[in-house]
Amino acid sequence: MRCDHVLIAVILFFAAIAIGWVASMVGVGGGIFMVPLLVFLNLVGSTQEAVGTSLAAIVFNSISSTIAYSRQKKIDYKFALALLPAALVGAWLGAFLTEFISSEELAIAFGVLLLYVSGLMLAGKEPKELGLLLRRGLDPHGNPTPLLGALVGLVAGVAAGFFGIGGGIVMVPAMNIFLGVEIVSAVATSLFVMGPSSLIAAITHFFQGNLHIDLAIPLALGIIIGAQLGAWSTAKVSKVFLRRLFGVVLLYSAINMIWKGAQGLIS
Which of 94, 127, 199, 206 is the residue whose CA sits 20 to 30 A from 35? Predict the structure, then answer.
């Protein structure tokens, strides 16, 4: 292996530790960081390739986080089973749809999605303080109805396959803000669900030629370590500070992705 390849692998490994740490704490797969990282370092030829490579690493984030959160008994398996079937279908559909949109348009769409999430994070409030709870979607036992579970799972799955994320940016706000699920449980459940859906999307991208295994390996190794650190740190860090810090990083990533995509369309 050439020296520059070793350096790239080392950079990705240590970056993935930090990404896995933060991602595991807030319940996302880490694609919101990995996709911009791969694109801005010019390690991939298109956003689709960054998406496919990111998804492969997210699978390992899900596995590592699930092990850690299951020990803490924070995963709501009833919620997870309500979301999972549609999430699997959505993941395949999202990955399939990337074949019909340009890399520049995908980058802009990804950036716009990040703007939404960054707004929620920068607010710094507990989601329940936003007053958006949607109790009609729950049954008498507090679990999502089949229709609502399918809807949230489908949207999260499409987001996972299309944008190279784990789907947590859909599932966590949906469970915590709209359905009132406790934040740590929403985070843990989201990370559990995104494993199978990310795997389906990653396999689809692999057969489309959008997955760089040489880049995915150091990302996966780093994110496994980071995910354990994130799950351990969840109860030890101020949620308000973490949300705002996360929001600043997301806002920066969103602006850069939109700018890069717009430049490509103009040129």
Answer: 127
